Amino acid sequence: MTPDLDRLFQALGDPTRRAIVDRLAEGPASVSRLAEPLGVTVTAIAQHLQVLEQCGVVRTEKVGRVRTASLVPDGLTPVERWARDRRSMLEKRLDRLAEILGEGD
Description:
- By secondary structure, this protein is an alpha+beta fold.
- It is 65% helix and 13% strand.
- It has one domain (3-103): Winged helix-like DNA-binding domain superfamily/Winged helix DNA-binding domain (Arc Repressor Mutant, subunit A, Orthogonal Bundle), CATH 1.10.10.
- A hairpin with a 2-residue loop joins strand 2 and strand 3 (66-71).
């Protein structure tokens, strides 16, 4: 795996960060809005967002006193590509196994 993909999987390995990504899939939200349902501090959410931002999954912007987070449209593309490639390899192996088992008839 590439270092970027490793960092992305590490970031998404945290349940709070996954919850943040899930919430942001509904649309942008302020840091305080993200903190409310998770029962963590705004400071903790800001730290989680920083990790997600470094991976390219989330972007934040500050307008006045409010910091708002949103998903980066292609931020999860490396994970999708990795999963698709593994699935493709597995399907090819299963197809080959089916051919081998069919040859025994």
